[in-house]
Structure formats: C-alpha cells, structure tokens
Amino acid sequence: MGNRTLAIIKPDAVGKGHTGKIMDRIISDGFTILGARLVYLTREKAEGFYAVHKERPFFNDLVDFMTSGPCMPMALEHEGAVNAFRTLIGATNPAEADEGTIRKDFAESVQNNAVHGSDSDENAEKEIAFFFTPDEIHQS
Ligand code: CMP
Predict the structure, then answer these.
(1) Distance between Cα 2 and ligand 1 center (Å)
(2) pLDDT tens string 18-69
(3) Which of 58, 72, 59, 61 is nearest to 13 (CA)?
(4) How far apart are CA 110 and CA 20, in angstroms?
(5) Pocket test for ligand 1, best of 8, 10, 62 (most atoms within 8 A of CB)
(6) Which of 38, 56, 57, 86 has the fewest CB atoms within 10 Å, counting from its CB?
(7) In this structure, which residue's CA is closest to atom 2 in ligand 1?
(8) Does domain 4-136 have CATH number 2.10.270.10?
(9) pLDDT tens across 79-122, in order?
(10) Catalytic residues
(11) Rounded to an integer, what distance in angstroms lies between the CA atom of residue 88 and that of residue 67?
(12) Which atom number of ligand 1 is nearest to the Cα of residue 119?
C-alpha cells in the first residue's frame, strides 16, 4: 500500500474560488502536501493525462473542460493515500457522493467534478511524475 497520490483541483473549482477551502479539507483530513502548483494545461497535456479515456464519448468535452482555466495538481502523502483520498472526495458523480465529501460539497456534474484523485498506487506514481520532477516534491 503506497503513501502518495496525485490530486487535481479542477478548473470548475479553481474558477469558483474554492481552491483554499478544498486544500483546507485535504490538510484537515491529515494529508501532507508534498508539491502543488497552479497549471494551465495545454490540450496536448490534458489529452496525455487522460489518454486512458481517449475512446470514451466524453473525452473531447473532458479535454475542453480541463483546458478551460487553471487547475492545481498536488502530490499528497497519507497512509494508504489513494484510498484515503478517494474516500475524502467521494464518487465521480457528485449526485452519488456521500455527505461531507469534497465532490458532494463542491462538484457540479460528473464531468465538472471539482477534483481528481489517482485510482491506484501505480497510477499515483505515474501521475505525480506527469506533473512534478523529483526535486519539486518535498521529501518528508
Ligand atoms: P476523474 O476522476 O478526473 O477521471 C476521469 C474524468 O472524466 C472524471 O474525473 C470526470 O471528470 C470525467 N468523466 C468520467 N465519467 C464521465 C461521464 N460519464 N461523462 C462525462 N465526464 C466523465
């Protein structure tokens, strides 16, 4: 079980001024922020990050959304980080997200769902490396 995950505060949440509130939830839940940066994703970068979804009907809309404004990728540390973060953010579709989760409180729709969290330890390491070089990550 790994202790790191990659989170992204997505353009909908950044645009509505929710970045600080979401970061506060993450810190209050015991995560350590190892790295964070405001990023304007190019189409190429967004397509690369979500390449696994490129055959899905929502892919182009997802890339439009992720390039519609700045987002904030963060490398996070927590015991069992991937599952701990997925519990904190709730279901992909906010209509199905539990009370008290970040998506329940901040997401608009299944696409504009406020935050991303890695779905496995293997993807967490790949996704952290997608946004951060090793020397940009705080070593706790
Ligand atoms: P995320 O956890 O970042 O992983 C893939 C993203 O695709 C997901 O959050 C949503 O933003 C988006 N997504 C997943 N399923 C759908 C869907 N059915 N329709 C539109 N967007 C989706």
Answers:
(1) 24
(2) 999 999 999 999 999 999 999 999 999 999 999 999 999 999 999 999 999 9
(3) 72
(4) 22
(5) 62
(6) 57
(7) 116
(8) no
(9) 999 999 999 999 999 999 999 999 999 999 999 999 999 999 99
(10) 116
(11) 25
(12) 2
Q: Burial code of 104-119, b = ≥16 C-beta within 10 A, e = fewer?
A: bbbbeeebbbbbbbbe
Cα–Cα distance, 67 to 8 (Å, whole number): 13
The three-class DSSP label of residue 106 is helix
Q: Phi and psi for 5 in degrees, rounded to 5?
A: -145, 160
Distance from residue 92's CA to the centre of ligand 1 (Å): 7
Residue 54 tokens read as 């490129």
Q: Which atom of ligand 1 is nearest to the CA of 113?
A: 11
Query: Is the alpha carbon torsion for 72, 49, 118, 68 positive or negative?
Result: positive
**DSSP alpha helix (H) spans, 3-120:** 11-15, 19-28, 43-49, 59-66, 81-89, 102-106
CA torsion, points 108, 119, 139, 25, in degrees to nearest 10? Answer: 30
